[in-house]
Design brief:
The protein is of the alpha/beta class. It is built from eight helices and ten strands. Helix 1 crosses helix 5 and helix 2 runs parallel beside helix 3.
Length: 319
């Protein structure tokens, strides 16, 4: 046996590289540093939360050997949990809206997960998952959790989601930039990445300004009217209360990004930087570019590249 070989794939989670987006910021005053979370084994930042929620469940005794794990997911957290559960020997059930891209369900099935797909709410459009769609998924998760006596990973409420980024992602960001960070931006899904990175980065430098990003048509967290909850930025922007975002002192301000801006930024990431990422990564970069062109001119901005463009090949993201 090679001493440096790992025993499980989940041990490769984290320690992702940081890249300065030099071509997309050409001519601008300031820098964007992108943490390539799509290079985790499940191709998304959610691998981190999946691992930490399972570890903390084991430590607390809430999760016992052989118990089934279940989760409501848009696909990324479910993929991370499928990888972790496969390595640790837990059966895993992923419950997902049919509005999410089918690549995610296929990947989870390939990793041994039982995937339960839930119909969208009446009037919802495939590829545009709203809070109403998630409410239907939630009903199924609650029923199956009781029926299977399962441990619910519960990314919207378990603090392992936040701790994964507070104690690991943020520390890596700080070290990789040698502390040269002025701003952090994040498109809100569960709120775990934003809360965790904001807490972790502000521990080192309280003056770091953290901006929360939402869809232009669904700025719910900013307290503005929601004109269309069925936006196209999958995996986030659900127009619902998020327990991890109840510390307003962490939030410098709210930013809005349109579907078109997120899509264009994702395409530019691929063509200009060689970074093949999804909708929410495009939203992060689009928001950062707006800041560099405005109130944060001259700043060093850090963000995460959340997941891989491979998960969106059935969509028109890269047409």
């Amino acid at each position: 046996m090679y001493d440096k070989a790992l025993n499980h794939a989940y041990e490769t989670i984290g320690n992702t590289p940081m890249v300065r987006l030099s071509r997309m910021t050409e001519g601008l005053d300031g820098h964007i540093y992108a943490k390539l979370e799509y290079l985790n084994p499940g191709f998304s930042k959610k691998d981190r939360a999946a691992l930490q929620m399972i570890i903390e469940g084991e430590q607390s005794g809430a999760l016992v050997p052989g118990q089934t794990v279940i989760e409501l997911t848009s696909g990324n957290t479910g993929t991370g949990l499928a990888i972790v559960c496969a390595g640790k020997g837990y059966p895993f059930i992923a419950v997902m809206s049919k509005g999410n891209s089918p690549e995610r369900a296929s990947m989870m099935k390939a990793l041994g997960a039982e995937v339960v797909l839930v119909d969208q709410a009446p009037g919802s459009v495939p590829g545009q998952v709203s809070g109403q769609d998630l409410a239907l998924v939630e009903e199924t998760v609650r029923r199956l959790t009781v029926e299977r006596q399962a441990f619910r990973a519960d990314q919207f409420n378990r603090w392992g989601n936040v701790h994964a980024h507070q104690f690991f992602t943020a520390e890596e960001m700080w070290n990789q930039t040698e502390g040269n960070i002025d701003v952090f931006v994040d498109f809100a899904g569960s709120g775990g990445t934003f809360a965790g990175c904001a807490k972790g980065l502000k521990k080192h430098k309280p003056s770091i300004r953290c901006y929360l990003v939402e869809p232009e048509t669904a700025p719910y967290l900013a307290g503005k009217p929601v004109t269309n909850p069925g936006h196209r930025i999958q995996g986030a922007g659900y127009s619902m209360d998020l327990p991890f975002l109840r510390e307003p002192e962490l939030i410098e301000d709210y930013l809005q990004v349109s579907d078109g801006e997120a899509i264009q930024a994702a395409r530019d990431l691929a063509r200009k930087e060689g970074i093949f990422a999804g909708f929410s990564s495009g939203a992060n970069v689009a928001a950062a570019l707006k800041l560099l062109q405005g109130k944060e001119r001259g700043s060093n901005i850090v963000l995460t590249i959340n997941d891989s463009g491979l998960k969106y090949l059935s969509t028109d993201l890269f047409e």
